[in-house]
Task: structure prediction
Amino acid sequence: MLFDAHCHLQLPKLQPMVRECVEAALRHRVPKMVCNGCCPDDWGRVLQLADEFPHAIYPSIGVHPWWVEESIGGDWRGQLSAHLQQRPRLCIGECGLDKARRGNKSLWDVQQDVLRQHLELASNEQRPVSLHCVQAYGSLLEQLKAHLRPLPFTPGIVLHSFAGPPEMVPDFARLNCYFSFSSLVLHSDKVVRSLQAVPLDRLLIETDSPDQLPQRLTIPLAAEPTQDATFQTVEADGMEGRAPVRYVRSESDGSWVAVNEPCHLGWVCEGVAKCLGRPVDEIRQLTYDNAVRVFDGPWT
Ligand SMILES: [Zn+2]
Result:
């Protein structure tokens, strides 16, 4: 079995076929997936999906660094806190730091402040946190040390789509961080070096769907879909038999684009196993067990 440690089933791209996506995941031996909300506007959809598929979808909600500007002035912290009170199994994130989207100095300060508040809530409520980090691993490490209590943080901290410097892995591991690898590992030697630095008991895998479709799954559509089609499916050969690759209409220019989904996790698992020179079955089992430890708890 495989556990998708990070995806976004609530995003509009996947809505025409979200049920088909969950069913395909179950058929392809991905019975569990963490669905991450990115801003208060999409939290309701995340929670709804988790209620609809309570055994498969683990809900997690937070304010992603790309959405911090919209959060200014709103009571996102009060809403997040209320949801955490109501749902003892709810996780925190996606939140984090992104220097590529830092904007002006004040927006970077807002990113840091929003992250600090997530870490305080995680400490108070003892919930796992899923973090996004781009070009800011030094600042992230400082924030974790300053605001998560107690350290090492028992519920676990997930560094999603990890691409940080290999030499920083031990520092994060000491705080009880887990390192989640996406299809980036199939396409980047730098990420492979980071993967090779990670202790096996901290390794996770994810699709980050609907983004990060593995390149080999970009199979062209055989024919242009009919005008009223909401999505179109082709098939690819994978570890667990033939898997669907679905095309949806792009919101920007109306063209058909292939999207990633949790049933594609096997390709990431195979890639990770190959980079580490270990059997696929071993990576499948240990990443599943690690994810259960983080997301199922016990957290206190
Ligand atoms: Zn994400």
Observations:
- The chain has one domain: 3-212+265-296.
- The chain has eleven helices and eleven strands.
- The radius of gyration is 18 Å.
